[in-house]
UniProtKB/TrEMBL annotation:
InterPro entries linked: CB (IPR044068), DNA_brk_join_enz (IPR011010), Integrase-like_cat_sf (IPR013762), Integrase_catalytic (IPR002104), Integrase_recombinase_N (IPR010998), Integrase_SAM-like_N (IPR004107), Min27-like_integrase_DNA_bind (IPR022000), Tyrosine_recombinase_XerCD (IPR050090)
Family, similarity comment: Belongs to the 'phage' integrase family.
MF (Gene Ontology): DNA binding
Biological source species: Nitrosomonas marina
Stated name of the protein: Integrase
Span of domain Tyr recombinase: 181-361
């Protein structure tokens, strides 16, 4: 064979085949003994590749299974690219774009739920009915089911917009309805009974929670530099989720909260304990170190206090509901309450807390 044959370059005991596939110039090197028979076979192989490309039957991985390009081109073949591969690649691409807690949730959804069920399927094999069957069979809350589908929806959205698939089966799968829990705020007597069960840092933390409306994840991330006694407010900028500091849940969550008298008193009492040479306001009194996560507060402080006070258990989030209902009951403007809570508008206030808004006479 002529060493200068078009599309083929001989290099000792190997040869490089060049061809164009999907508008991309490709070059693949394969081992080849320096014999005429091997060279003739190489010409036939290239001709076969060109023929398969022209007829739309070319399988890159079949011809070059160890090629890096083959793995990339598989992503454009919905009949070959598996859902498991797509999910893993999507997760890897988003590692630096998302908060660690978000990546942890996505990883759990992908590796514990989606891949075991759909991982071996080719992209083209997924149908809406298969997803609906999965949702019907898995024993989880509707909210959790919807969250599990988020990575799968994102992957198929990308595939559709990149024109790798002609239709997105997830568009025919609606999120399941989630029942909203009614707020169960604490009354002033219950608040007093709970606070009487606490002392020191624990009392300051829970008192501040009741009278500031901050989420527990925002409470444990609050810094002294975010407290302004002169302006009588705290600046909510960060939250601590699963040991990691992050921005507030939403853009509107970044807010200035006016200090109610009881909240101000709690901070003044806390300042004596952690105000000197400390960044974080509230500490775990057992270690005198900042709280690692909000779950520890529920187990160590909240639940035992309610039990000792003889009060029916409600989760710590009810301190937010208590704060909102107190402000509204005394006639505060719903727009002001929405801002204090970190809502982007007052529609949620009306929807969730409407019965605490005094009716005009």
């Amino acid at each position: 064979m002529d060493r200068g044959h078009r599309g083929i370059t001989i290099r000792g005991n190997s040869a490089q085949i060049a061809f164009t596939y999907q508008g991309v110039r490709c070059r693949e090197t394969i081992p080849m003994p320096p014999t005429k028979a091997a060279q003739k076979e190489l010409v036939l192989k290239r001709q076969m590749i060109l023929y398969e490309i022209s007829t739309g039957t070319f399988d890159y991985c079949k011809h070059f299974p160890n090629s890096k390009k083959a793995k990339e081109f598989r992503k454009t073949r919905p009949d070959q690219y598996t859902i498991g591969e797509a999910l893993k690649n999507w997760l890897q691409r988003n590692q630096s774009r998302c908060q660690p807690s978000t990546i942890r949730d996505y990883s759990s959804a992908i590796y514990h739920h989606l891949i075991p069920v759909f991982g071996e399927l080719a992209i083209s094999e997924l149908t809406a009915i298969k997803v609906k069957t999965f949702l019907a069979d898995v024993d989880l809350s509707n909210k959790r089911k919807s969250n599990i589908l988020i990575p799968l929806r994102r992957v198929f959205d990308e595939l559709y917009h990149d024109e790798i698939i002609d239709k997105n089966p997830l568009e025919r799968v609606k999120n399941l309805p989630v029942s909203t829990r009614e707020p169960e705020p604490f009354n002033t007597d219950e608040i007093s009974r709970i606070l009487r069960q606490l002392k020191g840092q624990e009392k300051n933390l829970i008192q501040f929670a009741f009278y500031s409306g901050l989420r527990t994840s925002e409470l444990i991330a609050l810094r002294w530099q975010d407290v302004d006694f002169n302006k009588n407010c705290v600046f909510v900028r960060t939250a601590k989720v699963r040991g990691h500091l992050k921005c507030t849940k939403t853009k509107s969550g970044k807010r200035d909260v006016t200090l109610q008298p009881q909240a101000r008193d709690a901070l003044l009492n806390q300042q004596v304990l952690t105000g000197e040479q400390n960044d974080i306001v509230f500490h775990d009194s057992r270690t005198n170190q900042p709280w690692k996560d909000d779950q520890a507060i529920r187990k160590i402080i909240w639940t035992p206090a309610l039990k000792r006070a003889g009060i029916k258990y409600r989760n710590p989030y009810q301190t937010r509901h208590t704060f909102a209902s107190m402000l509204l009951s005394r006639g505060e403007n719903p727009m002001f309450v929405a801002q204090q809570m970190g809502h982007k508008d007052w529609s949620m206030i009306i929807k969730v807390y409407g019965r605490w808004i005094p009716q005009p006479k």
